[in-house]
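Re: beginner question about structure tokens

> Can someone show what the tokenized structure looks like for a real chain? I only ever see the sequence side.

Sure, here's an example I had lying around. Input first:
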Amino acid sequence: MFRFSRWLLFAALVLGSRLGATPALSTIADTLYTADGSRFNGVVNISWPSFEAADASNVAAETMQLEIINGNLYVQLVPTTNAITPAIYTVVYSSQDGIQFTEAWGVPPGILSLRVSDVRVAPGAVTGSAPAASTSILISDITGLQNALNIRPTSGTAFALSRAAIIDSTGSVDGAIGNLSDCLHVDGTSGACGVGGSSASGSFIDGEIPGGTLDGSNTTFTLANTPSPASSVTLYRNGLLLQQGADYTVSNNSLTFLASAPQTGDILTASYRMSVSLTGVGFVDGEVPAGAINGSNASFTLSQIPYPAASVAVYRNGLRLSSNADYTISGSSITFGSSFVLQTGDVVLCSYRIAQ
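And the corresponding structure tokens:
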């Protein structure tokens, strides 16, 4: 019985000492001035919410009022920067001249005196501490956040700053691969500019003047290169497109006129391709569209659908017509306007690009 009584006494003393312990305090001592250099005189009200200090002491919410005489500030407060629950002190200054302003303090622990500049919290800053569990928020805790994240683009494995952006197969934003001088294609690939990229080959020859004598008798002229295909040749005489196979023929790099030899002063220009190959692009040259040329029929049909429609060039008797003014294109159909219906004997030729 005696031993049990001693144990109860010991437990009571230990518990009493714990209950009677006060949290550690930090001292803030400073001299306050006004903007004109005189010492501050007035009242400082310091208030705080309830919080749990670093030693697990529970600090109740309260407001303290200090009178500041001749600028002298001295106060001891429980530290908040290491508190178990976040807390700050709200400090309101009221001078004898009616001036009032507010600031926040975050008080660190320590045995040395602190100045106001050591505890003042900048606007927007965060102070205090708390257990990780109390500050962690799960994505599922916020309604709609997971759905918003799911539709938000993510960066792909090849993402890099200052690169052209492409969408990869997973929907992520990636950086285009290639040289910085390359052009980017709509399928996300890159290649040299102006020739359709690395998948292109061949070349275009435009506005070449064939070699040969213009004297009214010479009918043979020579191109600097061999067109490939021969049907790609477009030959103009004084600005009018001639019909291959009717006005002239092509053999290798030679042009032979069939009807009349070019006269002195005539101007000949030729354009053609040399084995041009572009991925997804095809060419149709000098096609005669299907349809009756009888002075009344206005509708004609191309063998393929032009792509794009703006690539179509329509020539009537060697003179190029104007799209949407002289004719319209819809799919593979050409419809001539009422003032441009083809007459018997007219020659119409069409050239255009197609998708392959």
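Each token stands for a local structural state, so reading them left to right follows the chain. Residues 2-20 form the longest helix (19 residues).
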